[in-house]
Amino acid sequence: MENQSLEIQADNFFTEDERAAVYKSIFTRRDVRGQFKPDPVPDDVLARVLTAAHHAPSVGFMQPWNFLLIQSKEAKQKIHDLFVKANAEAAAMFGGEKRDIYTKLKLEGILSSPINLCITCDRTRSGPVVIGRTHDLDMDLYSSVCAAQNLWLAARAEGLGVGWVSIFNKQDLKQALKLPEHVTPIAYLCIGYVDYFFAKPELEAGGWRERLNLDELISLDYWGNDEALPAGLLEAIAQAQNS
Ligand SMILES: Cc1cc2nc3c(=O)[nH]c(=O)nc-3n(C[C@H](O)[C@H](O)[C@H](O)COP(=O)(O)O)c2cc1C
What we know:
Layout: H1 16-28, H2 43-54, E1 67-70, H3 73-93, H4 96-104, E2 115-122, H5 139-157, E3 160-165, H6 170-176, E4 183-193, H7 202-205, H8 231-242
Antiparallel strand pairs: 1-2, 2-4, 3-4
Helix pairs in contact: 1-5, 2-5, 3-4
The protein binds flavin mononucleotide.
């Protein structure tokens, strides 16, 4: 095989418009809970976003994910019941005013979205010793998270909303989905076309929490180093955030 077929051009591979499209998907992606339309998602669109997920990076090329599509009303209802139980427990963990706000938040779209998808992590895939996972066994979990993010961004480009629901008792969720012991649920996602996307994270718009300043999250060489970042980088960060 000639080298040519194994390599893709590195520089100037994306046109300016294509590069802008990648950032557009990143910056306009939202967690969607409430604006789902009942319209079915065509198979070719679903296939594309699943393929995007399947092309995520993974430790040792382990590809530890599986994709469980939850489409029947009964199956969704079972999962929704689990959410309701866990959400009541969650509300009790917040005190005072935060609890009042919490109970008013909509934190899932399980029944209103046409597709629910659980991305899992098979902790045994490709055997006990995996390149890159030799010293931190959690790397497989992070790989499945990468699959979720790939799907989320591809879905945004397809005009699909995605909402991540994590308020479950993990064992209950595993049981409901009949996951074997060695398989962990990573991302329970609600997917469908939406009436609109919010411009900002709903938790930000609702006053729950603000986006942190990026420049305060970057440090040089070691954690907690208060040495100032180079002025050029600071300026560029400010510009990138305003563009
Ligand atoms: C791991 C993970 C778990 C999440 N779990 C929930 C959840 O249970 N319910 C919910 O409404 N949003 C959930 N979210 C969405 C976040 O609240 C959301 O990403 C964040 O507020 C920023 O908003 P944005 O995604 O619209 O930018 C989750 C997101 C991640 C990455």
